[in-house]
Prior knowledge:
Elements (H helix, E strand, L loop, with lengths): L3 E6 L9 H10 L3 E8 L1 H11 L3 H4 L8 H7 L14 H13 L4 H22 L4 H25 L5 H15 L20 E8 L4 E5 L9 H8 L9 E3 L2 E5 L12 H6 L4 E7 L14 H10 L2 H4 L6 E6 L12 H45 L12 E7 L7 E8 L10 E3 L4 H8 L3 E4 L14 H6 L6 E8 L6 E9 L7 H29 L7
Parallel strand pairs: 1-2, 1-7, 2-3, 7-8
Antiparallel strand pairs: 3-4, 3-6, 5-6, 9-10, 9-14, 10-11, 12-13, 13-14
Amino acid sequence: MTYRAFVAFSGGGAKGIVHVGALKALEERAVQFEGLSGTSAGSIVAALVAAGFKADELIDGSGATILNQLSRIDPDLRSSTDLFGKDGWKRVKIFRALLRMPFSFGTLLMAFWGLYSLLSAIIWFCFPRFGLPLSLLVSAGLGFSFWYAYRTVIGGLADLTRFRDALDRLLQEKIFPLEPQRVVTMADFGVAGRPSLKIVSANLTRRSLHLFSAGRTPKTPVADAVAASICLPVIFMPWKIDGELHVDGGIVSNLPAWPFDEERELDPEALTIAVEIEEPPSRQTPGRYGWLPAAVRTALSGSGELNIRVSGPAEQLALPTRLDLLDFDVTAEMAAKEVRDVAAAAGLRLDKRLFRLPEIYRNACQVAQALVLDGLGIAPGGRGSSPRVRVGVGRLERGYGRSLRLSHSVGFEEDADESMLVPLDGSVAGAAWTDKQSILEVYPLDATRDLPGPANRLRRKSRLRDLAWVMCIPILDDETGEPRLLVQLDGNSKLSEDAKTLAALTSVEEAVKDFFGMVLHELKDLEDDHGLQK
């Protein structure tokens, strides 16, 4: 089976190299990319993949990377640290060292004040006649040094121009090899068999999120969009496009799965795969004066839950890594190892979530369907208006608490209510879930359980019209006693009101509970695995 997918890659600085491992796992499972989006480091991967580059072209097992191709275009780009310019990486290394020192900003200010006080005391002691003018001179010198350091840091430690130009040429050679003067723009994606591409930055001029796409910014060069998205504040100088300043998109949306809302509506069965980089919890609680670095990391990675709230089938890959945000000087061997480790872990999770989990649910639904057909004496294979039985599994979606999604089913293939979101209030499924007891109802249903009210109008229209009965069986978690999932059985054959039918349905209920109870532990293991094992 080929999966169609919209894939979003998060930001993460140097840690973004692990995206290549996730990409390799997706390629090995023949996932077809319908659209790609990215922020910061993720925008580089998204742009290259959309242009047709494969994981092994970005970094292979020997440690060879896309930089080998960039260095062919610009010989000065031989390593990832060369992306910062000749002196830029030196400044970034100093900044990184300061960040890793075990003191707060308040301590730094106290040290600065202490240095000034010490120099002033030495001057007054050694040169009492010139103490005042020399002290003023020292104050001016330290003040200028502080001002210069501030301007350097705020203005950006490195320039992206060289990387931007090399990326622009690389994309042109990949997509339009016979047109050396061609500039690859956002409009070149989503056409000619290429997936759509969407890139996020923070527009400082407009003070808003900025989405680069074929629909919104068709004439923007992709290299400029990427340069804008990866401008990590302090590290890189803000990038200017059409007179507007842009910085790292992670500030406003670090995991942009949302830009494909319309595409997912048009292709509701396509997967959304959100590839993010794990941000391990801090081992130390931020203090009153040391909260700023934690605030920056929270701003870059804390909005992930909002960014991946999407409709339709979705998977989240949380990638572990030993790298840090500014570890651009990592060796090729270590980079290759990170990619291999992540590819293996991501592949394991994809196998679980894309193959094993649906297989278990589908097999369980088929078993439940066979039990009902056998118990009620209905011939299998019914279609249309002929006697048939449908089985669906209702589950709470991530972040939801008032509805169940019929996420896996058999017998619904030709019906509009496949994958319906069923409200807990006003439905038989909701009553069974809330009461933690199985419920059997025959049609016409009681008005309070028949999807009442204007909010359910479209649900009532899409529901199979000739249903005769419905049975909802909650499957409880042995540990918590709370419903873990719900099995909904329904059919279009009128039930006989005799003891034999009642006994058959009771046997079906017990058999369904027993069977789903047996597979529940494996289901829990697969569904609770929201991240990757390190």
